[in-house]
Amino acid sequence: MKMSVDEIKKILSECTYEQFMKQKEILKDDDRKSIKNLILKYENKFEMLKEKNEEYNYRKRYETELYEKNFKYIAGVDEVGRGPLAGPVYAAAVILNPKIDIIEIKDSKKLSHSQRTKISERIKNNCIDFSIGYATVEEIDNINILNATKLAMKRAIEGLKIKPDYLLIDALKLDDVLIPQMPIIKGDDLSVSIGAASIIAKVERDSYMDKMSKIYPQYNFDKNKGYGTKDHIDSIKKFGICEIHRKGFVKNFI
After folding, report:
1. Which domains are assigned to the chain?
2. What single string gives the DSSP state of each residue in 123-188?
3. Which residues are annotated as a binding site for a divalent metal cation?
């Protein structure tokens, strides 16, 4: 007696790739169109999953090489918020668990707000350690954005409970941090550890700017996150600046 479509659907929904291939062989002589469509659907699903895993392993190649050299705690470090006209610059440091793959990790800019929020929680719940650091608007104005970015990164690294034995950093080298490190251009898209840091830092900074929007609603920080959109610049011209604006960044508008 043939299984019903619903029964087969339930079995396939719970299959690993190996189990699916066995079920596919069992069902190869089933002529029902609905079953053929189900098989095609799961073939596509596993093909997409295979591609995602290959892409993830490619982005994990820096970490894999370092694990093979006996580095145990590899921290990815990235910043968010170098370009805005308002708000702190945030950084995160993340030591991923090499035994747990989170294949959704990628450059935070390539993810939606909803995706970033969910993936950030998965990273936090499954990583070995993570930490967040930031540099204030006053520090940005006093020491410039590049040095403030490095300061935020250093604070994120120092906030880790487990000391990393290697750092993968997006683009920058931290000369005053005495840990072996590798700066990687576009690292948030090329390294899973840096990508994880970019996601956490982005979620944390966005949350801060959402809170600031309630205090300073005239600037719509919840929408522009402090970046120099036309509406934001128009608001500065109309209302002047507030306490979280970077004076060195907005001097051309006031």
Report:
1. 5-58 (no CATH), 62-212 (3.30.420.10)
2. HHHHSSEEEEEEE-HHHHHHH-HHHHHHHHHHHHHHT-SS--SEEEEES---TT--S-EEEETTHH
3. 78-79, 170
